[in-house]
Structure prediction request, 145 residues.
Amino acid sequence: MTVVRPLAEEERERADAALPFSRLDRPRTEYLVAWDGGEPVGHVCIEWTRPPELQDLWVLPERRGTGVGTELVAAVEERVAARGFVELKLTVGIANTGAARLYERLGYVRTTVPPKRIKGTILLRGAPFQVDDTLLEYVKAVVVA
Prediction:
């Protein structure tokens, strides 16, 4: 059974060895990790902006299509709603059709914000990373629990 919870300090090293945390140690962010039998199998990041933003959803390739991504998104929505927010947004690369299908199936809708092209070098965990992508913005209303 998969359990999703915030990444605890004592779990960081183990989870970081298995999963590609690209936004670890950024201000205003929090990671939730999916664990199965004590092993990390996926993660998602919440950036605590207004509205909060779901970022960096990632599941081990062999666990994709098994519901882990859905569980991670649901955990973010619950956490966001528990803090009193009524909306959650995210962006997805235009070529990442699998992720877009997941988000749309979970009730996310495209906003009227035009697609945004990003190109250049960004820093992920202090290392330069070349990016050339077009991002689509999605949003979903979340219900306060």
Summary: The longest helix spans residues 68-82. The chain has three helices and eight strands. The first strand starts at residue 2 and ends at 6. The chain has one domain: 2-141.
